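Hi R.,

Quick one: here's the Site-specific tyrosine recombinase/integron integrase sequence you asked about.
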Amino acid sequence: MDFSDKRYTYSPGTHHESKVIWVSFENDKELIAHLRAHTKARWSASQKKWYVADTKRHRALFGLQEEITGKAVLAKIHLINLPEFKRYQEHLKLKGYSPSTLRTYSTEFAQLLYVLKRNPVQELTPERLRSYFLYCHEKLKLSESEIHSRMNAVKFYFEQVLHRQKMFFDIPRPKKKLLLPKMLNKAEIKKIIAATENPKHALILKVCYGIGLRVSEVVALKLSDIDSTEMLVRIEQGKGKKDRIAVLPESLLPELRDYYLNYRPKVYLFEGQDGGMYSIRSAQAVFKKAMEKAGIKKKIGIHGLRHSFATHLLETGTDIRFIQELLGHNSIKTTQIYTHVTDLSKSRIKSPLDSL
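And here's the predicted structure, written out as tokens:
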């Protein structure tokens, strides 16, 4: 039994001024026991229904879509601009943007609406917009990347929703800083994996590094995505909603088989305690704990394993176009940043001074 059982129905709501998810079903001891075994469900005597806290975990467990923006965001937007904000979110949904992009764009656009108060957003002129972004720079002290993010969200409204293509024609963008991706060397990765005692956690890190996956792609891997005959892995709907094929390392296959026999996952390769997809936050916590146990002080997240994968492939002479395909980059320019990271080729360069 799982929470996709049609005998359960779910509806978000409020209870004692807190956000909850109501869980309705026929009075059945088996369903009650299953609900209480996997959640901290409580019974409401006044509503005569079971409920749980409205959290990301419970929404994922019940197959409910995450909220794009909460009531706190909507409460700050003046009534005159609420219809445009809702229209904005509807357009994002119709475009098929990911939940993460929906939240980011909505939050950034809402910041503009807060400042406007009762002034209609659709009446803004290019000059007023320019003044707003200057305010973001001088008063709010936003970084270059934060201003870029806000400009992208506002640009989407005027160009995609209102179809005003020239609104940003004279508004300059701040120059982005060139930040090289952070990476780990092979000795450090060996230490991290060796410090991870839990076999499941160690395998998560090996898959992340060994296949060069984003953490969101690691937790979304399904058993059906692993082709042990062809030694390939299908990455379904990665960033940009693209499918791609990656190479399954030979050393991973025996470990994957042992892991399956011990853990018996049902759908996803890595599943949480209550079944369903393993959470991104849990995978990030696994990496952080492994870094601490290995005694590595670098300020780097789990995404650094993917960067290290690309860099180490370059160092062994792998064609950069092949690396581009493995990583799922649209442009070769994105992959070329790794040529600035690897020092192995540079170390082989001889200065003209040495030949004097």
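The longest helix spans residues 99-116.

Cheers,
M.
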